[in-house]
TrEMBL record:
This protein's UniProt keywords: Metal-binding, Nickel, Zinc
GO biological process: protein maturation
GO molecular function: nickel cation binding; zinc ion binding
A Pfam family reported for this protein in Swiss-Prot or TrEMBL: HypA
InterPro entries referenced in this protein's UniProt entry, alphabetically: HypA/HybF
Protein name as annotated: Hydrogenase maturation nickel metallochaperone HypA
Length: 117
């Protein structure tokens, strides 16, 4: 299950960049392209399992955004959405494997808890 290693990498990254402030994180948003083979429900399950073993993360939430596959047509010089894994320009019919979006996986947002004053 590669989702658990992805979640571990997310927490390693948070700890590396936010040190002691990790406990103050309310929500982590992850963006995954359709070609990254990330299943949001499996990532959520792995996240839930991870925070069960780490009580100081108990209140942290995860949101997974999924990006469509976008390719670029060199003939039309336009980007198009890949549907049904057909990497063919909708306008001119030219095949294209020039992926612009869809294979990414990254932390796109970190939201911290509001401090009471």
């Amino acid at each position: 299950m590669h989702e658990l290693s992805i979640v571990k990498d997310i927490f390693d990254t948070l700890e590396e960049h936010y040190d002691a402030k990790v406990e103050d994180i309310q929500q982590v948003q992850v963006t995954a392209g359709l070609l990254s083979n990330v299943q949001p429900v499996l990532i959520q399950n792995a996240f839930d399992a991870f925070i069960t073993d780490h009580p100081y993360y108990q209140e942290m939430e995860l949101e997974v955004l999924v990006n469509d596959i976008i390719a670029h047509c060199s003939q039309c010089n336009k980007d198009f959405q890949v549907r049904y894994h057909k990497f063919v320009c909708e306008d001119c019919g030219t095949p294209s494997a020039n992926i612009v979006q869809g294979n990414e996986l990254f932390i796109s947002k970190v939201i911290f808890k509001q401090k009471d004053h």
